[in-house]
Design a protein that fits this description.
It is found in: Membrane. By secondary structure, the chain is mainly alpha-helical. It contains 18 helices and no strands. The chain is globular, with a radius of gyration of 21 Å.
Amino acid sequence: MLPNKRTPTNQAQRWKFLQLFGLVRRNPLLISRWVLRWVMVGTVCGLFAGLYWNVLELMTHQLERFESVSLLIVMPIAGLIVGLVIHFLGNPGEIAVIVDNIHFRGGRLDIRKNPAMILASLVSIAGGGSAGPEAPLVQVTGSFGTWVGDRLGLQGEDMRSMSLAAMAAGFTALFGAPLGGAMFALEILHHQHIIEYYEALMPAIVSSCASYLVFALITHLGIAPTWHFPEYNLENMDDFAWAILFGIIGAVAGWIFMTIFRTCDRLWAMLPVPVYIRTTLAGLGLGTLAIFLPLTRYFGHQELESVLNTNFSVVFLLILALGKMASISLTVTGGWRGGFIIPLFFTGACVGKAIAILIPGLNPTLAMICTMSALNAGVTRTPISTTLLLSKLTNFSPFTPILFASLIGFFLAPKVPLIASQLKSQQSIEEIQS
């Protein structure tokens, strides 16, 4: 077992900073070269993300026309294709593998896994799986950062920072929030309230800004808010109390989701079949669920607007939230590829709107966004970036209530995170469990 990365002392950090300051003062062009490298990486990542998104939209447009009983054929076939891609091209891994590589392989992500990740994720997402493109984009762009680092002969923290900068660029392209994307790339690595790889913050921000501009030019996404919530103005101190309450509700929803997810994972472990059989069976389950709850199909980018604009009953919203939790769990544990951040936002919106209907006088916008933030922050352990992302995606300008809810969801989450590699070692997992 590899040892944990030793945290440098304050004296060592100060000495490293003084050395860097003296070097930059003697050679002003040094900082410019680094900035150009980060901008170049972000630009290429933005170009790839734009191409990936356009191909994904084209495939989705062709497959979303299938509805009802036809899904029992289309989605198992999609699952079979996903499984065959993984079987012949290799397992591209998930976000847990990325986190593990950042901790223990010096930030090196394997670029050879990209063909399998790109093909499998495109079919998974376009076929109707409840997983979004954020995880594939982070994997592919992060490995490109590693490739650039190899070409430049980078080692140690410089290599790790380049990979993290590229990961942030890939995440930012989808969400259109450079600061939120940069923070996410650092926060997702840990389950505790720390950001260890602070050296990568500036590279991640610069790379994210470049990626954001390129992706927005290609797709015209990320300029306006993604979801159009009713306007909200923070005028009452009571809203902070409500934000805390919604944070508690979101945390409870997070516990329920992780229980469903781990149950699905254990059930699949009891069925030792080839990966293409597993993904096909998962497709059959997802298709069956989508027949009864059509809004559980896809990752929620467009479906969330239906929750906002349709007068669903409380019972239906809660059933839809549970159905979405099951759909996300079946997608990811069943071998389909993609991320679950946007699907979790969709789930939180359903729960929040149901609570707002149950308690007359509550602001539905505050209820939905705070529950979304608490649920996602508790599951992914990213309270700061979740706040920044949701404030951009929803145009919710007084983001302090979101921060309150995110922190509540974060601190009330289970000790063992869903992404176990955030603990950095199996020994850490055993210590927490004991």
